Amino acid sequence: MIYLNLLPPEEKVNISRGLALRRGIAFGSFFLFLIFIFLVLLASIWFYLFIQAQSIENIIKKNEPSQENKTLLEFKKEVGELNLGLQNAVQIEGQIKRYSSMIEELASLASGGIKFKELSFDENKVSLAGLALTRAELLAFKEALEKSSNFENVESPLSNLLKQNNIDFSFVFKIKEKKQ
Predict the structure, then answer these.
(1) Whole-model pTM?
(2) Torsion sign, CA atoms 57, 63, 69, 72
(3) Model confidence at 95, in pLDDT bands (50, 70, 90)?
(4) Nearest CA to 169 among 98, 120, 115, 121?
């Protein structure tokens, strides 16, 4: 096939310029369309993130402790501290031996002729000193201590038995451990 180009050179240049211009306009329009699509996408993402940020801020504001909530939280904290203190007191109270009950039992074991002068507690060890009117009353008291369910290992020095009347005595014994 043969092509004949009968157009003058200036017209050829005009046609090629027009063709280039149309291509440039088409390319520019397509580029502008892509930029517009990108901007619409960017705006919708920004709008979505803006709404999410607002809802998160509202949630944070709702969860922030108000004055009433702060007072309630402080009250709960104080109650927790008091409960902890009470638990510690109950625990300590459970560890303390009931010496008053031990003294009552010693008084009930002693007859009228036994007088206590000194009584000391050291952990599970008890030291007792006193005055007995007769040796028989002292021996009865010692036997009652040995038979007691709260005391064990009753030690009595020989000096307790030297005199017949008005005896200064001393005993050392242990408090039995209660099995829980």
Answers:
(1) 0.47
(2) negative
(3) low
(4) 115
